[in-house]
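G.,

No rush on this.
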Amino acid sequence: MIRIGYKASAEQFGPRQLLRYAILAEELGFDSVLVSDHFQPWRHHDGHAPFALAWLGALGACTSRIMMGTSVLTPTFRYPPAIVAQAFGTLGVLFPKRVVLGVGTGESLNEVPATAMAWPEQRERTLRLKEALALIRRLWREDRVSFEGQYYRTEKATVYDRPEEPVPIYVAGAGPLIAKYAGETAEGFICTSGKAPELYRDTLVPAVAAGRRTAKRGPESVDMIIEMKVSYDPDPARALDDTRCWAALALSPQEKLSVEDPLEMERLAEALPAERAASRWIVSSDPDEHLERIRAYVELGFRHLVFHAPGLDQEGFLRRYAEQILPRLRRAFG
């Protein structure tokens, strides 16, 4: 059985508009809504960055069924882990068994402008994430937590409002070490589509499985999420053109590693040729082509597909996808 989600792009739309789209997604039969958590968007002009935690509270109050959460939040710099534990404890009480905490090691684009910090290397960011999650889990299970870590400390801290069953933690990553860690410890793994096929086939999926085996966990213990980047429009030219505003996603990790200014990120993205700007996306007006190109990810083991559309007409996308693609997916994969 597969689950089908909608990616709420907080970098592209303001909070009220984005909320309307997410509510519509539930009405049209989507199973989940995951929202990006950005302090700065990928581009300055026409960019947005609503506060994801407040927005999730509004989404929960306006819906009744969908799973919802972050994809992803960084619980290590802008947000101290104890505050993340408190926030998601509250969300978990308000909306029982509907909330997940999706986390990652972060990007300088979001953390540096808000903190004026020096951006650390990947190793430190990974160590911080593991320590932060260890603290969050303790705060969801214990009272009066005194924690002495390498990076974080608490003194007799208690999260007073938390659900009986802790909020599931989903770990995002694009490398084998973090994928294995997700398999060992997390309730879900998140990655994004459109990269080299061997990354998923030979690295990420086997690493999650290796982590599960190390921890003696079954295949169903980790929800395998992939954010599917799809541009689907009856007009092929428009489907291609819609990807331009997300061209930054085609930049390599090296090209955008220390870019903290949305104006500079926008400049780098706009310099890319159209073919490269669209390279991360499934761009097509043919529903059968979409199905076949999605099939490769499902057959690798990704059973939770969260669709991210690049265009401004999100309502049109949601209605077309619900009518023309979702039934095909469910017939093909259960």
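When you get to it, here's the other one too:
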Amino acid sequence: MNKRLWPLGLAAVALASLGWTARAAAAPADTSVPPTVAGWQDFVESLRTLPDRMLAKLPEAQRRDPQIQQEVARLALEALASQTLEAIGGDGDAPQFLPTLGQVLNIGQPNADTIYRSASITPGGSYRLRGQRGDVSLAVMQQVLPPSERNQGAAAQLDLSTLKADKDGRFDVLLSATKPAGYSGDWWELKPSANRLMVRFVSADWSKEVEPTLAIERIDKPAARPRPTATWLEQKLRALPRQVDFIALLFVDHVEKLRQEGFVNSLKIFNPPGSILQGQFYYEGVYDLKDDEALIIESPIPAKCDYRSLILTNELYETTDWYNNHSSLNGAQAPADPDGKLRIVVSARDPGARNWLDTAGHPTGIIQGRWTGCDSQPMPTVKKVKVTEVLKALPKGVATVTTEQRQEIVRERRRALQERPLW
């Protein structure tokens, strides 16, 4: 990677948009003048070294690969963007739900069917949450605790579908440490150390399911928001390098670690760090395929299952672009075969089977599946075949599509996903 280009980063883009020349944007700073903005130089220095620190976690062949180098830079920008949104908009006294993960903020392999948002809250504060319930497959809010308590947050989850709603589907719930005397409405106990609320809206039928709406306010403080103090703003700025580092470095070598464990073209149970949705079971494994090879993933389907999906990631654990490729499948998109089993094909070339995951130019990456709210968690089997032999290896009557039909499916996926609200 060209290290000289990295420090320009977002500043170069901003200056270019204002009509500055490339020479002006690249002009060296006057080092004789001491820095004025407290914390800014530490922030810039952390960004300057971040891509190299990420690359250092990868094998030498990947460190030297220009493609991987630029994808590492992209991942660093994704981490920066996600955490900068929080630094700018996160305020526990005036909270709002901000995007945290997704196709653009592609960090930590976001699930293709999930819209992720989070809002900062102040420990000990009281909040009112209002909105419409919608009808997505899953709509869950989770309290996020400090890292020292990371694995204790899983129990603090609220299923929005359980809230009382009026004839228009609107809900109104109080969030506080203690329930007020005589209060008869919906109430959710906030843990004393909770500093964030994270919501997941999981949709299987992107065109028909309707996302909930959310509005949040702190009710034990005046409604108006005073001018943020310099001290508070500096604290947010100084915390940013640590937060960006944590996100950018967390999973960059996850694929390589799994490869070293020997799970190549095979699957294992995955227990993610931190809190996960209650009742969610993950499995994953590295795929490593030549252009003419395919994997057939096969499993029974649980009799009861609230949600199921398979997604792909690239070598850096970014979820493969599912907006523009046929690279994710859920229960509404991948029906069972005539014998009742689920079979999904993973390959670079379209084999003609409807249940296909497109590796989209990534010869290696990860297959990750999840069963959520299911009465069993079967571990699928994996079989490698030639792409030309896929349809012969599948049972009779399996659903197939033509090249033209696949194009239409991908275009329809893109439309439906773009119509889902992100903010």
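Residues 66-89 form the longest helix (24 residues). Residues 11 and 305 are 48 Å apart (CA to CA).

Enjoy the weekend,
O.
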